[in-house]
């Protein structure tokens, strides 16, 4: 009996010693396993490539207040684990430290926190400490979180920010409130800090398009975080500036001149890419006044395999407008569905432009169809719902239109946004062999990428929802050949529901199994162990 006890003790000490050794080794060799469907907690290909391409040291400082309450405590843990993976992938080029700002306070700072003052309204305040001033200069701001201390709910000032430095440049994430897109944000900033050239995204102007300082202000702000957004006015030029890497054509209202069409065509033939958001009519979203748009781009796009429709797409699944109605002595705002703003529950296909994005609004759009020639790949990115229909000229877009007395001919879905890529033929191929001061390319050098949408209002400030912003960023990344970033941005957004065709019996079994199954297994396991222990005691007694 004493020998068995000795063996058990030795075995226990061996297991404990092995665990201690594994923990010590784990401090030096970080590794975690990721069993999620889309590897949400594994460093993406884009992040690993960014780390492998680092040539100079990058330092990351994470300012997190210690002992944060849930869910912020798990955010801090996730940030630390993620930075460990970045450091491992960088082979020592990236270093990081975790700092609790409160531990950096001096005695003078602690004394200053006790001194409060009152303003002219009687509100109490205190002067910032030296640590708080230093963090403010770095771009890190405190947030107020609710904590339970001494059995009371209190408000506590906390820090949850990240500062990234490379040479003389710096980027900041002021508050890490949500970790869902944190890897994308970090990799984006790391690329921005370490790249040698900022890609240039040109926006065509000169044809009564929405201006970058007017209706496209949010577009410029969003894309300007990663790219140089520059207006492009072709005038009499037959070529787009060589420094422009991709081109956006958004809502031209007057026709492009022949030399401008040639410039855009040859821009694509050089292997560069462009996106066209084109209107059949221009609508003022405040007055609903409409005017026709004659951009003249339809023949050019038809050469690349894209056909523009001339009928507006209306959809029963739509966005809403707020309309004022008089009720007695009061005027109230009533949300009413407006079918000329189709609401797309989910974009189409496996393209990195559309993957994982839903809730996009496409106001005043026409259909766009594919008729791609040989060697060109075409993909539909967005469709209207099955409850959509087409409206012909003259368009009645009155928001007070009474749909109760109408029976539209529903025929959806209709394609609304498409992409094409591959070896494109020039629209001016017949002129390629004609001697000229600026010789034309008859076909594209590489495989340019083209996106065509049947409306431009989706990019206006008036309709720039969060889903529209995500779509816009995906378009820009795809045009500039950075598809790895697109995959990372939408990773983890796709839901994993049960099969929609599953039977009610199976669905209930899964549901109650999740609720009751695990507790039942633990109880059964405990009962079995208790029965085995009692059986051993009975044998010893006998």
């Amino acid at each position: 009996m004493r020998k068995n006890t000795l063996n058990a003790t030795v075995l226990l000490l061996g297991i404990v010693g092995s665990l201690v050794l594994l923990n010590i080794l784990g401090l030096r060799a970080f590794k975690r396993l990721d069993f999620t469907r889309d590897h949400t907690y594994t460093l993406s290909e884009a992040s690993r490539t960014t780390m492998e391409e680092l040539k100079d040291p990058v330092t990351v400082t994470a300012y997190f207040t210690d002992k944060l309450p849930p869910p912020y405590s798990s955010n801090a843990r996730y940030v630390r684990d993620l930075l460990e993976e970045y450091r491992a992938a960088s082979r020592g080029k990236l270093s990081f430290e975790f700092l609790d700002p409160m531990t950096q306070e001096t005695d003078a700072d602690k004394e200053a926190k006790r001194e409060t003052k009152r303003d002219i309204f009687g509100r109490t305040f205190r002067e910032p400490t030296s640590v708080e001033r230093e963090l403010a200069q770095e771009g890190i701001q405190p947030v107020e979180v609710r904590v339970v201390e001494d059995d009371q709910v209190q408000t506590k000032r906390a820090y949850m920010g990240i500062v990234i430095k490379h040479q003389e440049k710096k980027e900041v994430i002021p508050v890490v409130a949500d970790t869902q897109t944190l890897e994308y944000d970090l990799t984006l900033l790391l690329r921005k800090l370490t790249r040698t050239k900022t890609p240039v995204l040109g926006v065509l102007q000169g044809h009564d398009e929405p201006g970058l300082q007017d209706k496209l202000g949010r577009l410029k702000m969003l894309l300007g975080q990663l790219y140089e957004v520059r207006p492009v006015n072709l005038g009499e030029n037959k070529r787009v500036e060589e420094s422009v890497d991709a081109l956006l054509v958004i809502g031209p209202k007057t026709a492009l001149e022949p030399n401008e069409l040639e410039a855009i065509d040859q821009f694509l033939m050089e292997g560069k890419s462009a996106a066209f958001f084109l209107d059949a009519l221009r609508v003022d979203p405040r007055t609903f006044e409409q005017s026709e748009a004659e951009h003249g781009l339809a023949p050019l796009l038809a050469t690349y395999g894209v056909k523009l429709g001339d009928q507006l797409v209306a959809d029963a699944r739509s966005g809403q407008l707020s309309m004022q109605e008089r009720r007695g002595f009061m005027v109230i705002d009533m949300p009413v569905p407006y079918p000329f703003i189709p609401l797309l529950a989910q974009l189409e296909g496996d393209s990195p432009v559309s993957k994982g994005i839903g809730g996009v609004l496409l106001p005043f759009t026409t259909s766009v169809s594919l008729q791609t020639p040989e060697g060109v790949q075409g993909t539909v990115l967005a469709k209207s719902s099955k409850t959509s229909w087409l409206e012909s000229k003259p368009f009645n877009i009155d928001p007070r239109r009474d749909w109760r007395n109408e029976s539209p001919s529903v025929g959806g879905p209709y394609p609304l946004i498409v992409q094409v890529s591959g070896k494109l033929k020039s629209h001016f191929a017949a002129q390629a062999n004609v001697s000229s001061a600026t010789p034309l390319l008859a076909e594209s050098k590489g495989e340019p990428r083209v996106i065509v949408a049947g409306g431009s209002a989706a990019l206006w400030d008036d309709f720039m929802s969060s889903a529209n912003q995500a779509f816009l960023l995906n378009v820009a990344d795809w045009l500039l050949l950075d598809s790895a970033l697109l995959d990372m941005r939408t990773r983890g957004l796709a839901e994993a529901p049960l099969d929609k065709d599953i039977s009610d019996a199976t669905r209930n079994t899964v549901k109650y199994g999740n609720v009751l199954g695990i507790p039942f297994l633990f109880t059964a396991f405990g009962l079995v162990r208790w029965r085995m222990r009692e059986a051993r005691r009975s044998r010893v007694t006998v």
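The CA atoms of residues 188 and 226 lie 8 Å apart. DSSP finds twelve helices and 23 strands in the chain.
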